[in-house]
Amino acid sequence: MCYLDRILWLIASAALCSQAAMASAQMACTPVVASAPVVCPPKPKAPTQAPSSGPSRSTTAPSTDVPRIVINNVVKPEMRQDIARALPAEQSSKDFWDGLIAIGTMSLAFVTGGLWFATYRLGRDAKSAAAQQALEMERQLRLAEAANKIARDEFQSVHRPRLQVRREQVRYNERDNGINLVLANVGDLPADKVMANVNLRIVPAGESARLQMESLPPYNNLAVNISEERQKRGVNGELDADERTYWYFPFTEITTASMERVTRLEDVLCFFGHLSFLGPDGVLRRSAFFRTYDPHTDTFIPSGDPDYEHH
Questions:
Q1: Is the pTM of this model over 0.70?
Q2: Are 140 and 252 found together in one domain?
C-alpha cells in the first residue's frame, strides 16, 4: 500500500471515530428530570336509592373506586438552577458537535474523492502496464524470430546442398561424341532448379593456360536444365542429399581427328562450366569446375584455381 492510500485510510478512520464520539456525547448531555407520582382524588359518585315497599329513605352507598395515579414530571427546586446553568453549556456543546460532524462529513467526502482518484490512478497504471507489457512481449517475439532466423540461416549455410562434377569420361565413336559425367550432391540438403552451363574447348597446347586465365562465367556453350530433364524422365527434379545422377553432354568438337591431336599432345581438351541450384532456404548457389583432359590416363585433372573449382 502506498503512502497516499495509508493517509486516506487514517482520515476515514478518524471521521468514523468522531461521529461515534459525538453520538455518545449527545446522550451524555441530556438533562435528567425526576418524575414523581401524583395521586388524584376519587371522583364523587351519585347516591342511589334502594327500592322498598315502605316509606322511601335515601342511603349513601360506600364507594369502591380506587384512586387513580397520574405520573407527572416534577423538577426539584434545587435542580432548577443547575438546569438553567446547563442550558447554555448544552447549546455550546451542541454547536461544537455539529461543527465536528460537519468536519467529519467534509473529511469523509475528501476521503471518498481520494479513494476515487486512487482507483482511477490504479486503473490508469494497470492499463499503461498492460500496454508496456504488450510492447515488451512483441519486442521479445521479434528478438526470438530474429534469433531463430539467424540459427536457421547458420544451419542452412553449413548444412546446404553442394554439387560436384565427378568421373568425367570422353566418348567419341560412331554414336556418341561428348562428355559423360556424374553429378553428385555431396551436401546435407536437396538441390532444386539445377541448371548446368558446360563448355568444351580444344586449343593448341601453348594456349591452354591463357584460356583458363581468360575464361569467366557465365559461359555460352551449352546450358541444360537438369531438374526439368529429370522430370521428363519421370524422376524427381530435386537432387537429394548424397544422390548421384549420370549425365551426358554432346559436343561436336569431339571427333576422331581432334582426339588424335589431343593424344599426340598437340592440342589440349579443356572442359569447364558452372552449376546453379536452389536450396530449401530459397538461396541461389553456384559451384564451378575447370578440368583438363590427360590422354595418357584418360582422366580429367581439376584446376587448382578456386575461382574455377569450388562448390
A1: no
A2: no
